[in-house]
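The step that takes the researchers longest sounds almost clerical: writing a folded protein down as plain text. Below is the pair of lines this work produces for a single protein:

——
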Amino acid sequence: MSELVKSQRLGEIFEITMNRPEARNAFNESMHAELSQAFERAEREFHRGARVVLLRGAGRVFSAGIDLKQFLTFDEALRDNLFPVTQRLQALADQIERSSLPVICVLQGYCLGLGLELALACDFRIAAQRTKLGLPETRLGIIPDVGGTTRLVKLIGVARAKDLVLTGRHIDASDALEWGLLNAVYPKAELERGVAQLVKSLVAAAPLAVSYAKRVINDIADNPRGLHIEAWAQAQLFRTSDFQRAVLAMLSKRYPIDWEGK
């Protein structure tokens, strides 16, 4: 069986790659577990000399978000109490954010939904020129609930966060860079050179100072209350007919969805 998440130590770099390219690196429970394990290993490697984490997606797409097919397997009890699912996903994003190592997210193709929410938990986001980013959850009748509102507002402000979340639209890398959602954008052929330059700058600084500075900056803002509100709102929306109709429509490629045709 192929690994859904691959990880390897390359000198001072610990590289983590989501490895489900045939599904555009869409998240399911197995990938969630393996990604968490990879970041646990990264934490151990920090004490053995690793200095930076690179988070990638195999293939042409970073991540298309959560795998919609798994929603169809949820039983009634889980639909009535979504909090455990949301909390597990939020815990993964928190694990990435709290890593002792600076985490660079390397984006290409598409970075959508849960994929973007995990990218928001990283310290740096570097993208290839034609990358598209978005939080399409409202088009499914739900909201981003893994920091996609809380972290996004901190990063780009209320007005632009409302633009992305309320419309569910995609934006291109140049707009994302202008908004402060990305740290840098490179032509695809130059992406790895750009990533290497950032790694070099981080490695040039003292490792403990980098780790402690990251922790101080992260702790300035109060994330827990925002994440709790996200989870509460999502639990209400998950039980609606809007959500059920949207999932089936998306899976059968019947979109845009006619919200008035209930």
Q: What stands out?
A: DSSP finds eleven helices and nine strands in the chain. The longest strand covers residues 5-10. The mean pLDDT is 88. The radius of gyration is 18 Å.
